Amino acid sequence: MIGDIRNGGSLVMRRFLRLCLDLLFVKGVPVTDVAGTQYSVGANLSIKAHMPMTMKYFRGFLWSSLALLGGCHALLLNPPGDVARQQSDTMIISTGIIALIIVPVMIAIAVVAWRYRASNSKVRYEPDWEESPRLELVIWALPVLIILAVGAISWIGTHKLDPYRSLDRIAPGKPVTAATKTLEVEVVSLRWKWLFFYPQYGIATVNQIAAPINVPIHFKLTSDPMMDSFFIPALVGQVYTMAGMQTILNGVMSKPGRYKGFSSNYSGAGFTDMRFTFDAMTAANFRGWVAKVRASGGNLDRKTYNRLRQPQRHVPVKYYAHFQSDLYQRILNLCVNPGQMCMSDMMAADAGMHMKGMHGMRGHDRHMQAKPSMMTP
Question: Which numeric CATH code is attached to 170-332?
Fold first, then answer.
């Protein structure tokens, strides 16, 4: 029923094909490979003897996987944040388009294995069949069309949802206008905690962030000293934080509630403790939260920050009613301690020396052009 195996090649490939055929067929079927070797597939009794135990383990693995998935929630597939929802839609649409080729192929594998089994004597036997232009057209055209569709959707979605791009809407049908106010939040990832500055309110928090619903949030993020990843699945996709560099993230929350945030990038022994809460609330409740922070918080200066930046696990929520106005910029530019030169000043000095050197070279060029040549033709 199988016919000649026309593409064998190496010994490893022939053995692999024989193993696959042994697992598919129950009866022995005579087969001749390209090397002229004859054998009977499906007659490997040692494999068949172990198949019931193998299927038992497979079914156990499948049911265990389904049981574990039963404890999951579909937050990534149905997030309340508008940006996260658009990202989810892009992912779902792309997966659905890819499934248009994956699902039929998986079904075809099962149909072919069942239809052309050794015990089915009614199927047509065509050992000399080689090609079909129509079939090849379908086999190649469908994947190409799917790749083009997924590529177009991914390209549009990636550029539309660029984390550095300002939001153009709060929710479907609610565009961002000139009168829309944006909440500014400056984020610093530490070992192993998160520090949040609210420059518009002069407050800071540790391991808790709050924001009013339907208000765009503009995040500026950096790290001290290790690379991390800032991720609030309900709000927006993750973005990395790096020492001496600043990344940008924009998001908006549509529903009030308490959501989880964490670092999705391994950063040492306390990585699993880098978790914080994101509280989305009404505008009135947010004003009350700001008043609570101002009433119960202390002062965050460079000395306090140096104590805070020390590696520590299981850090509780902390409030700071005031913070040094340039502290975030000093963290970003690696110059928190007195006497350290900030990276921005260093780059400005280098740029000034470079410009001075360029001006000197231009003057030298003008001088050489005006000076008569000492060489005679």
Answer: 2.60.40.420
